[in-house]
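Much of what follows relies on a compact textual record of a protein's fold. Think of the row as the fold of the chain written in a discrete alphabet. An example makes this concrete, so a full record is given next.


***
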Amino acid sequence: MGEFVRESAYTWANRLLTLRCMEARGIIDEVIHQKATYNRRSLVHHRLARRQPELCTGEDDGLFAVLGGEFEARSEELPQLFSTRAAAVVLRPSISALKRCITLLEDSPCPEVSTWESWLASQPLYDLISTVDGKRNPPQTIAEFITQESAYIPNLNDGVRVNIAPLQKAGLLAGEVLAKKDLDQAIADRVEWRADERRWCREGKLPQPGC
């Protein structure tokens, strides 16, 4: 029983921290960060209170409903972390413990974080495998690497789906080839495949990227 309680606590903590990181980067609407403008609720919580006020009449003020809905929404993108079938989240933290966790996630600023991006972007990149195809000169800094990876560089080995997804998302196609729900996954697959390809080069399984 004690092991299950620990697993549940870690699962809740991991999920809350992940949501806070995602919202801080603008990937999702704010679920954790609360504002006085929304009566000390997050943006998503505020929307729920306006659309379904009956869900916010309990002791938790609808907080579990907000988080449950967000867990389900994120389960498609991050099924290992936000699985709706995970037994660990059946055991809920107390309301006071949950609110304390949210407060800690909100009130843990890092004063150095604003200086990291410019410093990191200027750092040299000592990795010849970071070239696109093994022929072009590799990026010399992390900023150049990010620019390269953000560009549209089709690869025949990726197949039609992955090569078309960025074009369709940018609205450059006359019609829809892929389902809208598949676009982000196709782009994410490309990123993962590039990382796998470079790892295989380092391990000696491929002679160069783009093979």
User: Anything to note?
Assistant: The radius of gyration is 22 Å. The chain has a mean pLDDT of 82. Residues 2-106 form one domain. The chain has two domains: 2-106, 116-202.
